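Two folds, back to back.
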Amino acid sequence: MLLLLGLLLTHSNLTVASPAPPDTLTARETRNLTALARAVGDLKYFYPNRHTARVSWETVLTRAIPAVRHAPTDQALAATLDRLLRPLAPGCRLAIGTGTAILPAPPAAAGFYWEHRGLGLDKAGLGLVTGLMRLGGLHYESRIEAVSATETAAAFPDGPTYTEALTDSVHLTLPLVLTAAQHRLRLRYRPGRRVRQLSAATPEQRMATVMLTWNIIRHFYPYQAVLDRAGWTEALPAALEQAGRATTETELLAAVRRLLARLPDRHLSFSPLTRTGLHLTAPPLALELAWADSAVVVHRVPAGLASAVAPGAVLTHLNGQPAGPLLEALRRTIPATSPTVARQLAARQLLPELAATAASAAFTLRDSLGRTRTQTWAFRQLRGSHSEPLGPVREVAPGIVYLDATRLRYADFRRALPQLQAAGALVVDVRRRPHYDLLRILPHFTAEPLLSDSIATPLLHQPNFGHPGWLATASSPILPQLPLLTAPKVFLTGPDTYSYGETVATLVRNNRLGVLLGQATGGTNGEMNFVSIGRAYELTFTGRRVLPQGEVYQGRGLTPDLPVMPTPSPIGRPLDATLQQAIEWLRAQ
């Protein structure tokens, strides 16, 4: 990542803040801070005192980190944590030893507990995003509820306490249900000067950023099997060490993104908060790169550069830096179902990442004859457009009609019906996010009602996703529509077929609407949640899960019926390799 950071900063026109001093953690310090992170996550989200719920945990962490990191032994660690955390959660207990800390097991009784329907906290600073979430039906709620003894018994089959092994010998035990008096009890905690916004300026704030991010995913990510496969619990120490060594916000962002990239979830993102909470998307570049046959190659060339470079040329260096290490640095920050897919995504993002901060770049390219040439181009020369010259419906071979699901509207579909009814076969491209009108078009492909998967919100009362409930929203069948198009159909898929695109792909597979051809899908579905980390950064993640009727694909992707991997040789052809394979397969039927 440092190579890429150097490349970005060297060619940037932006003023970069003075770097903060790096900080190196010892193994003992990393162990101590990992324990602190675990404890704070438990108390922040599950200790049901109404005053604890209003605590600034950014302030707690930045004050606690210096004291906790230097504890020389587990016994000293337990004593330090007890001194710092008991004022915030008087009912919790810390114990040292090989056994677990034990609070007297109370009988199920009425009281107060946290109820999380997804994560409804941590929205401060999101600006317009919170309103857009409401408009989009993304309702997440977190609140302390009064509960009866019967509800307590149902919510906590193992008893209303929770014990966390902070290390192999330090244990935290906290009550998950408090009496009315305990719920209202004022705290003896005196925070001093409040940390209103985290930054990369100090090691404490950088490590607090990592701790808060890690805890949200740990407690609220709804696909726990994916989390376990990724080794999320073991990921924190390395992320803390990277955050300590970071000296700029750019390096802190890279450290957090590398942590998140352990999860193969394309909904994950981490970026600085803007005033509105929204992020503008820059126009695409007309010069596009791709990863094929273990090389970064030119995939598409703007008309103005056609005489200088041809599709299929290999990018060997960018601003004098070898392309391979730059790609790998970016790849490690991208969530994907495999390293190969991450490299494909990184190849596409390499130039947009650089164009966000630099005015120009030097490209060293090797052509098909092995000749190498370096040229410098301003990014304004490489700007593309969101518009496409070709329509969303067109014939790509005699009798074979192509539909671009990203741009296809139902009105376009109705206008093209005579052409579609006469076609011998259809190719539907869902490799990019389809338009929602596709759900009005798919019922024309079948005589049976379409059944889609349900969405479920986790209902949580205890840490670490213990004994979750699920609030499912059942989907209604989509009734067939006339005219019925019975021609054979191929649906093109790829790594960008995820979220709503993956909903479409599962509809196709489960309802036998056609054949999936291309690469595996992105392995990410469900509904997103948006949260603020320390009023400085925005974290997005999957907040609700899909309850699949068929194949479980989260974190893996749907394997297409006819796999097609990208290769360098067809990249310069008018038709891309995946579309060409679809045409050849349909002709053979």
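---
second:
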Amino acid sequence: MNKQLFRLSLLSILLLAALAGCQPKTVTPITSLINKVWKANTVKEADLLVFTLGATNNIKPGYTNFRLDLSRPDTVRLKDVDGRLTVGTWTISTDNKRLILANLNPKPTNTGGVVEYYILNEPDGVSLRLERTAESRKTGNTIDQYALVPE
């Protein structure tokens, strides 16, 4: 009986030590990886590549001036392909899958002041891939994909 109690106590101690050693990995909040000014590296409107940074034959050279400024907490400044500046707030969905721009002023056409993007890859601080969740009037009612890099 004494031997069984010793084994049970030893097993319990080993199990507790193993559990105590299993600490969850610290996850960097997604906001700390994207809170910077982003510029377009490549842009696809529907499935058509219309812009590549540094290329001389871009279909839409206006994306050279595209900026998505997330450098200030909760404040976004978006300069789109047409050069128009829109200011509002930004948040990340609770599942970290969408970037939500809200209270945009002036309101982009047919948005109600809200533009959302799917986050296509896990942000790493050096690139950000986004896709509009809805069509953009500015691009001929297409769903657009952006591969962004820090400014």
